[in-house]
Design brief:
Double Stranded RNA Binding Domain; three-stranded antiparallel sheet; 17 helices; alpha/beta; single chain; about 20% strand; about 525 residues
Length: about 525
Amino acid sequence: MIQIYDTTLRDGTQREGISLSVDDKLRIARRLDDLGVSFIEGGWPGSNPKDAEFFERARAMTWRRALVAAFGSTCRVGGGPEDDANIKALLDSGAPVCTVVGKTWTLHVTDVLRTTLEDNLRIIEKSLAHLKSKGRRVIYDAEHFFDGYRADPAYALETLKAAARGGAETLVLCDTNGGSMPWQIAEIVRAVRAAVSTPLGVHTHNDSETAVANSLAAVMEGAIQIQGTINGYGERCGNANLCSIIPSLELKLGKRCLPDGHLQTLTEVAHFVAEVANLAPDEHLAYVGKSAFAHKGGIHVAAMRRTAASYQHIVPELVGNHQRVVVSELSGRGNLLSKAEEFGLAAGDVGGVLNEIKALEAKGFSFEAAEASVALMMKRAEPAYRPPFELVDFLVNVEHRTGRGIFSEAMVKVRVAGELLHTAAEGDGPVDALDHALRKALTPRFPEVNELHLVDYKVRILDGSNGTGATTRVLVDSQRGTRRWSTVGASTNIIEASWRALVDAVEYGLTVAQEPERPQPGREP
């Protein structure tokens, strides 16, 4: 069993742009405990009041699987742990596990700590021994270990032996600068394992984009603990990403690290942590990203319709993710057939719809994030389909009047069941005015229009070199109850682009979104 030591709440929060409240940290810690990690590093209680409060509140909570760890450094140079403020804060935290970082690299001992090599060994051993004597489990983080080992292997090993004498249960080898390569990690871990008997762990940073590979290399050489963060959050380029490491351990190396069945919650945990951290989830992360099992190329999709293993390295549901098919100008018939199945639509004229998509994408449309527009195109290709309304004309005015300022007014003509309806409405802007006018026309026949809500509106200029004549793409996100969908429009006129996306959004809401929601491929209903 490989121990997963999560340091999202400490090392992860050192990422630029992340700031978690105590409540945030406790929510994440609870979710990590549910996931089944072995250790949750809550922070550095001696560094700030927020972390001290976290440990105070964590003491009153029941942890089902994880042990809460407090992080700190060795005692001061020239002093002892008995009266050291940092060591006292570790003890006062009440955490059952204390993780202590110490210097391994001679450069840091002489130039950063400005002490002797002998005194550094003393403070490592004494600090850990003092915590151990107070009933704490102790983990030792050997900072800059791999750089230190390359500079002076004998001294680097002496620091580990000092930590072992102090009572460390695990010696964690840290690639703090993130510059090591997997083969270097493997070689050094192998050498250390032959020299010390205490179990080894690894803590890697991602400055060379090798943190995950380095962590797995260490495990292959006998390390029993991996330290990392959810989504790879961390200082500079981040820490080792546990969302890649955990499934790689379990599915590729056959090494257990979570309780049975808990791997399937990994994608949900990754998105939860991103949400609490107020960061957009990285859709292209391995295993847990939205695009991790998304297929766009027509040849790929055609093959996967015969066997999913042809273009997927694992079954997505094993990590709580699911397979997706993306529609674009690169699509083949298989992409649309898969979409028809997903939306529960008749296949219809797949070739004609595919040609229309390719032609529209050449004009600036993009259907990858606008699946509702794709569904409507397929719906409209059904011989028996009759749209709930048809656009005849629209007019938009934007005015400035003294005493009132800027306002917009829109007029729309739509045909509903053969009847021509002509309505006008004002709005905060031209798109808002069009939305109000269209709803005003449709509500008497379709009162459910009032349940449709525009929740996001995105504009992108595609060819800025054309100045005010540039093609504009508009993406509209709409919602009805718990269902949410996206539609797209594109034109050199932003009002026309917005109108097309808006009309698609409403038509989808009155047709496809009226039907019972179908489970996504690979997901339980």
